[in-house]
Design a protein that fits this description.
The complex is a heterodimer of chains A (400) and B (251). Chain A has 400 residues and is mainly alpha-helical. Chain A contains 17 helices and 6 strands. Chain B has a domain of 157 residues: Rossmann fold (3-Layer(aba) Sandwich). The longest helix of chain B has 17 residues. Classes of the chains: A mainly alpha (400), B alpha/beta (251).
Chain lengths: 400, 251
């Protein structure tokens, strides 16, 4: 279907089902229950899941296929956000032109940075991209204040021209982002018993774009171009002596992944029309590297899983404070309760980075192929068990 | 005029004159061997032919066109394929994918933004690659990771990859180095078969005299960066100058 192999089609369908039913899937615990803490089915977080999923899918096209580790991809995300906000300020609050402009600008910007950085490979390439991203970050903070509004970040005001829209709504407030009139913030709430499921227009726009982005990445992975990118990772010498010029291949991969990042940035601004320089900081670039490796670099679905995983931790684990812990362990005798809370305290709340770090280490050491490899091992183990311990077929899944 | 004309080529690395004044003419559809003791400049000469090194002096003409100053991929697209001393293949890719890549390079050139179509939809290229695998007797290994194969198989695959580009000149850099006798003989048979059945010129750098005398139509002996003799194999065998270069003056 859609020009895909059977296995890829079923993967696309799984991702489609997961994203479309996310408001249910991420909201398994009734509101008001002790476990409601772990619900992630609210619009803001769901949007972040899919937006960072798009970012990681794009990053994986560069890193997963060619092996070129960029440490500056957040710069493209930031540039995309700024472009989108400028479109909201100057043209209209419709998200479509904003998203298109952010993809184009990020593409041009990545063409420039890629052209210079790809003169080197390995660690030198990584350092060059990192340097460019930090340069962009610092410029956005200081010199480029007229464009980026410096530390405050770029925001909408009542004085923006908005040629095709209105500067201010009838009641004198700033208009909101929309898709041909459908407001991105509009949310329909479905209450089923104690559960409250939220369906947000912005989330569904992001989800549909994620599906398109995922579909495109499958096509790229299975195309001759994708095979060439894997060949770049495997043996550049052989490529050169096979009549292939590696430079335009790597540059094209770099620009494509930069455009994905710009798309993510544009969507971010479409959901919440502001853009700040901190989106370009190196920690943001590092985050997408973590997402891709955690999920499984070079696999199709890995980056999406990694993005969801990290964003879940960032938003859910960081909210568990001592008060919540005490309420969980209140059934225990006082001394034991306090001991448990003290024991768990460093891993949750502000210490969520510690949990994430430990998990990341465990994955990299025991599952070098990321979460996807974990899934494959479980499947193989289950298959073995079902077939009575027979050895599995020799066909291995191409993890990298 | 040969298909490959090397004229007055010299290359110096600091204080070392790696190549003195090399003249070499390789006739079309022959097997030309370049032999010589260690340090004679064989590999330097080869690197000058494929664009890895640029000689300080002289000219290298392939089929009437200069190769100097061109990148390796451009020289390859002109019709020169190179087989390395240690097989250079795409270890992370499957055997079939290894064979597909040169077929795509032949069809689409040095770069093609072929992003949307599936590899499996490119029937012409697939067919050609499958055919080549069969010719190399590796069709049963098509889904294997190339890195997992034996040294001899890797060599076969690399030669097959080069042939699938339909080169006019095939350069081999000590193709049997480090091989067991049986593998060496297999490689000799393969190369013989290639030169008999195809419209192809082969230039081979080799240490192993057994290989050289089984294959070559013409031999150039290189010593200390300059060609010593160029002759037919039967004359090289008895040439006292060659013996001297190989075994030292005392012999």
């Amino acid at each position: 279907m859609f020009g895909l192999e059977k296995r890829d089609t079923s993967m696309l369908i799984i991702v489609a089902v997961l994203t479309m039913f996310a408001p249910f899937i991420l909201n398994p615990f009734p509101a008001g229950s002790a476990l409601a803490q772990f619900n992630a089915g609210y619009p803001d977080l769901m949007q972040r899941f899919v937006i960072f999923g798009i970012f990681a899918i794009g990053f994986n096209i560069l890193f997963g296929l060619t092996g070129y580790l960029s440490f500056g991809h957040a710069a493209f995300l930031g540039v995309g956000s700024y472009s989108a906000v400028w479109m909201f300020k100057l043209l209209s609050m419709n998200v479509i032109p904003a998203i298109i402009l952010s993809v184009i600008v990020a593409g041009l910007f990545s063409l420039l940075i890629g052209f210079v950085s790809l003169r080197r490979s390995g660690i030198y390439f990584s350092i060059l991209t990192l340097a460019f991203a930090q340069m962009s970050f610092n410029l956005a903070y200081s010199v480029l204040t007229p464009i980026t509004n410096g530390e405050t970040g770029l925001q909408l005001t009542l004085n923006d021209p908005r040629v095709l829209g209105v500067s201010a709504t009838a009641d004198g407030s700033i208009p909101v982002t929309n898709l041909f009139g459908m407001e991105m913030r509009s949310t329909f709430e479905l209450a089923v018993g104690p559960w409250a499921f939220q369906f947000n227009a912005g989330y569904y726009l992001c989800a549909v774009i994620l599906l398109l982005a995922f579909y495109l990445s499958i096509r790229i992975f299975r195309s001759p171009f994708g095979m060439m990118l894997r060949a770049v990772k495997s043996n550049q010498q052989r490529m050169n002596y096979t009549g292939l010029n590696t430079r335009p291949y790597t540059l094209a991969a770099f620009v494509i992944s930069g455009m994905y990042a710009g798309l993510a940035g544009g969507l971010m601004a479409s959901m919440d029309p502001l853009a700040g320089a901190e989106r370009m900081q190196w920690t943001a670039s590092g985050e997408v590297v973590l997402m891709t490796i955690l999920g499984g670099a070079g696999t199709l679905i890995g980056p999406v899983l990694g993005a969801g995983f990290i964003k879940y931790f960032e938003n859910i684990f960081s909210k568990i404070n001592d008060g919540v812990l005490h309420s969980w362990f209140s059934f225990m005798p006082d001394g034991l309760e306090n001991a448990m809370v003290t024991l768990i305290h460093p891993f949750v709340g502000k210490g969520w980075h510690l949990t994430l770090g430990i998990l990341f280490m465990l994955v990299v050491i025991f599952l070098p192929g990321g979460l996807v490899e974990g899934g494959q091992r479980i499947r193989k183990w289950a298959k073995n068990k079902r077939s009575g311990g027979e050895t599995p077929t020799g066909k291995t899944e191409p993890a990298e | 005029m040969g298909i490959l004309e090397v004229k007055n080529v010299g290359k110096r690395f600091g204080g070392l004159q790696a190549l003195g004044d090399v003249n070499l003419s390789v006739k079309e559809n022959t097997v030309h061997a370049i032999i010589g003791p260690n340090g004679a400049g064989k590999s330097t000469l080869l690197n000058c032919l494929v664009g890895k090194l640029i000689p300080d002096t002289g000219s290298v003409m392939f089929d009437g066109q200069s190769v100097l100053g061109r990148a390796p991929y451009e020289i390859n697209q002109m019709g020169i394929s190179r087989v390395f001393q240690t097989p250079e293949i795409f270890g992370d890719l499957t055997v079939l994918e290894n064979m597909l890549i040169p077929c795509f390079a032949k069809r689409d050139g040095a770069f093609e933004l072929n992003v949307l179509p599936s590899v499996l939809g490119q029937k012409d290229v697939l067919e050609k690659a499958e055919h080549m695998l069969e010719e190399m007797n590796m069709a049963d290994k098509r889904h294997m990771h190339a890195a997992a194969m034996s040294r001899g198989d890797k060599r076969r695959l690399e030669i097959g990859m080069c042939l699938s580009q339909e080169p006019r000149l095939l350069l081999l850099d000590e193709p049997t180095a480090g091989m067991a006798r049986a593998d060496t003989n297999n490689t000799i048979d393969l190369l013989k078969q290639i030169s008999d059945e195809r419209d192809i010129t082969i230039a081979i750098i080799e240490h192993d005299m057994h290989v050289v005398f089984s294959l070559a139509d013409r031999i150039t002996v290189l010593a200390q960066g300059t060609p010593l003799v160029e002759d037919d194999p039967q004359n090289i065998r008895g040439n006292p100058k060659v013996r001297e270069a190989y075994l030292g003056e005392s012999a």
